User: Fold this.
Amino acid sequence: MEKIHLLFCVLGLVFASQAFAMEAYKPGEVWDDAEGNPINAHGGGMLYHEGAYYWYGEMKTGKTWMPKSNASWGGSRVDVTGVSCYSSRDLLNWKPEGNVLPANQDDPTHDLHTSKVVERPKVIYNRATGKFVMWMHIDSMNYGKASVGVAISDSPTGPFTYLYSIRPNKGVWPKNADEADKQSDPPAHYVRDHEKGQMARDMTLFVDDDQRAYLFYSAEENATHHIALLNDDYTQLTGQYKRVFIDRSMEAPAVFKRDGRYYFIASGCTAWHPNPARSAVADSIWGPWTELGNPCVGKNSDVTFYSQSTYVLPIQGKDDAYIFMADRWNPKNLEDSRYVWLPIEFNGDRPEVRWQDKWSTAWFDAQPSQ
Ligand code: GAL
Assistant:
């Protein structure tokens, strides 16, 4: 009897572990973590460190509601819970590593207070200091603060210590400002941003092969993107920055490098609602950037397959293998927002993203080399 009991226990464990073992990406469907709970890492970014991938993202937990201040543009929210982290070696099965930057419950003036906005966290590793550095979009509930925040940790799985938030590049003219702009009658936003610091909302980080790190962010009321160089320990800005995609209104930036060239994928500005994605290429990170149009191809490409970019992940050890990571937001129930991961193909210089109902990274091995 005892033997039979043991057999059932073992079989139970085998079935339980199989139930949670993912074998393929199913974009847009609920994606459970290794403990069987939906992955909660939105607007996320990825870090590869010592054989493991770490996925950081916004925790969207609890009731979705619409602050009066945001009703006109559709800015529904859930109160801040923190930044989640998951780890994986196969990019399919994700172990929850917990809340690595929890919200502040008590101090309404704190950047991480539940009433604020903490979005699009990205973590990079600094080889010289051995620290993990997180940058994120920090905002007030009505998105008027438009700042970036910085946190730091000794371990990829946290806990992260919050350092500060800023509006970047206060008192610094952009590298490509016209001399005329700085003279007697500069455009209003130049004066405002010059005196108060640049507005910063949707953002990402990119570390180049030479270990220099850059912050890309939607500035100037989201109309123009800025690229700014971080200092050597990645916790501050150097003051060197450039305006790019001027008046092109791009959000949700994702940056990657392929064969020595820099690629940029982003969205337009329609709050939680999807729009056609954008892409661009450059030989230098400072540009000039050449726009390549919507990288999505086929049915629903005009709404980026009902999603918005957040990161492009180069797969370690696989040649020319990049995953387009995007969020399928649910503005009425943000907790039920999903993930759309799709492989990137290259048509000459042009990145292309096609829908797949179901796929795995083995897909890359079956591609003719491009
Ligand atoms: C989007 C942005 C998201 C979030 C949202 C709020 O445009 O990409 O990160 O800020 O607006 O409505």
